[in-house]
């Protein structure tokens, strides 16, 4: 989790900064998801464990 500070002295600059933060979070999330997919692809037992019923 990251914290961001955006100043709103200038409305246009604020929205550009906000757009940058949102885009970077989307890229970070997609990257993390892809890394997990690659990890599961390289180790199929992870997929089996994630599909097991709770408590097993």
Domain module count: 1
Shape: elongated
| Rg for CA atoms | 18 Å
**Biggest sheet features:** none
Report the structural category: mainly alpha
Helix and strand sequence: HH
pLDDT < 50 stretches: none
Arithmetic mean pLDDT:
84
Number of helices: 2
Instruction: Tell me the helix content.
Output: 55-70%
What's the β-strand tally? 0
% residues in beta strands: under 5%
What report would you give on this structure?
By secondary structure, the chain is mainly alpha-helical. Helices cover 70% and strands 0% of the residues. The protein contains two helices and no strands. It has helices at 11-42, 44-50. The longest helix is centred in the middle third of the chain and has 32 residues, at 11-42. It is elongated.
Summarize the structure.
The protein is mainly alpha-helical and 56 residues long. Helix content is 70%, strand content 0%.
């Amino acid at each position: 989790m990251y914290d961001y500070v955006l100043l709103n002295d200038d409305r246009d600059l604020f929205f550009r900064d906000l757009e940058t933060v949102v885009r970077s979070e989307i890229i970070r999330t997609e990257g993390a998801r892809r890394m997990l997919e690659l990890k599961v692809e390289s180790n199929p037992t992870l997929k089996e464990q994630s599909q097991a019923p709770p408590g097993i």
